[in-house]
Amino acid sequence: MTDTTTEAPTTVDETTGGGAGSGAGTRTPADRVRERSESIAIFAAVFAAIGVLTALFAVGLAVRAVQRADSIENPPAVEAAGTTGPELTLTEFKITPNEISVPADSIITIVNDGTVAHDVSVDGITSDRVDAGGSTILDLTGVEPGTYDMICTVTGHKDSGMTGTITVT
Ligand SMILES: [Cu+2]
Q1: Is residue 156 in a domain?
Q2: Residue 129 C-alpha to ligand 1 middle, in angstroms?
Q3: Separation of 62 CA from ligand 1 center, angstroms?
Q4: Ligand 1 centre from 136 Cα, in Å?
């Protein structure tokens, strides 16, 4: 009649819990199951903690990578111009940059980021008039080294601020 309770005497065994395999003889299967599930829980907690730390570390690395990418990206405005050639951006009513230095015989890319048509003229050489959103080129081949005014020739635009200085080196 008392068969089912024979495994139950889980008395003071747990006080011996520290010994690694020493007093195992008095442990019941129920104790072992409980000890094992406790150690599994501890392992799970440790792994969870490691996971959180790893995630935080990864986030930190990612943030630093982004910051470094930013700081790398800002200076290479020059490099970007170097790979694609000098470029001027036109808006109402600015030429950006409004001071630029280019090697002799440069072909400058003109980008119209504004909302109306613009052009750029340097030393009597005038680009095509380019619609908003479009682009064209200004071919300075043959222009002698020196510093020149650059302007937009659309009526009123020069007086509204579409001027700049270009130095051919
Ligand atoms: Cu213009």
Answers
A1: yes
A2: 9
A3: 43
A4: 14
Extract the residue ranges of the chain whose pLDDT is less than 50.
Answer: 2, 4-6, 8, 10-11, 14-24, 74-82
Q: What is the per-residue pLDDT across 47-63, written as a single tens digit (0 to 9) for each?
A: 666 566 556 556 555 55
| Integer Cα distance of 16 and 24 in angstroms | 9
Question: Where are the strands (E) in 79-160, listed by range?
Answer: 87-91, 94-96, 99-102, 107-112, 121-122, 125-126, 135-139, 146-151
* C-beta atoms surrounding 94 within 10 Å: 20
Nearest alpha carbon to residue 118 among 94, 97, 139, 102: 94
The CA 55 to ligand 1 mean position distance, Å, reads: 52
Residue 128 near residue 136, CB atoms below 8 Å = yes
- pTM here is 0.52
> Structurally, how many domains does the chain consist of?
2
Residue 52 lies in domain: 3-73
What one-letter code names the amino acid at 142? G
The residue assigned the tokens 């089912």 is 4
Rounded-to-integer distance, Cα 91 and Cα 103, Å: 24
